Amino acid sequence: MSEPTTSEPATNEAAQPSAEVQALDRLVGTWKVTGGAEGTVRYEWMPGRHFLLQHVDLIQSGEPVTGMEVIGKLRPFGEPTGEEVVSRYYDSLGNTFDYVYELTGDELTGGKLTIWGGVRGGPAYFEGTFSADGATVTGEWVYPGGGGYQSTMTRL
């Protein structure tokens, strides 16, 4: 049996889930969404807890929005784990959207969730605040040119 080369990843090393991704544990569960989009979203851990899955079933602007999002840190073949918590969303119409997640604060202070469309600091983003009890997230989606909408998620 040959020795692995430096271009091959160490497949037997189990990476620990990142603290930044683990902080998103407060999203796990089913949430009722109200505001500019209405319906439910459900978050669950993929085995290993490196990735959080979001299942989306909403109505926005009178149209159904159904999809799935995979949230975590990228770890491409043969490369180190990325620094940002990113996601890719897939919908039933064949669209894909990329996001960058950031959660600041902790469960004792409520905390703030920011989700940028595309890249960190981009012009499209969601900024929401967790209630002190973690039962709601209230915020707003902001789009370039002044568009966007208010959004509230309430834990079911």
Word description of this protein:
The chain has 156 residues and is mostly beta strands. The protein has one helix spanning 19-22, and strands at residues 29-35, 37-45, 51-60, 63-73, 85-91, 96-104, 112-117, 125-130, 136-142, 148-155. Strands 1-2-3-4-5-6-7-8-9-10 form a ten-stranded antiparallel β-barrel.
The proportion of residues forming helix, as a percent range, comes to under 10%
Which class do the helix and strand fractions yield?
mainly beta
Low-confidence stretches: 2-12
The total of helices stands at 1
Strand order of the largest sheet: 1-2-3-4-5-6-7-8-9-10
Summarize model confidence as the mean pLDDT. 90
First and last CA, distance: 53 Å
Relative strand content: over 45%
What is the radius of gyration computed over CA atoms, rounded to a whole number of angstroms?
Answer: 17 Å
> Major beta sheet, specifics?
10 strands, antiparallel, barrel
Instruction: Count the E strands.
Output: 10
Strand-and-helix sequence, N→C?
HEEEEEEEEEE
Overall spatial form: globular
Task: Briefly characterize the structure.
With 156 residues, this protein is mostly beta strands. The chain has one helix at residues 19-22, and strands at residues 29-35, 37-45, 51-60, 63-73, 85-91, 96-104, 112-117, 125-130, 136-142, 148-155.
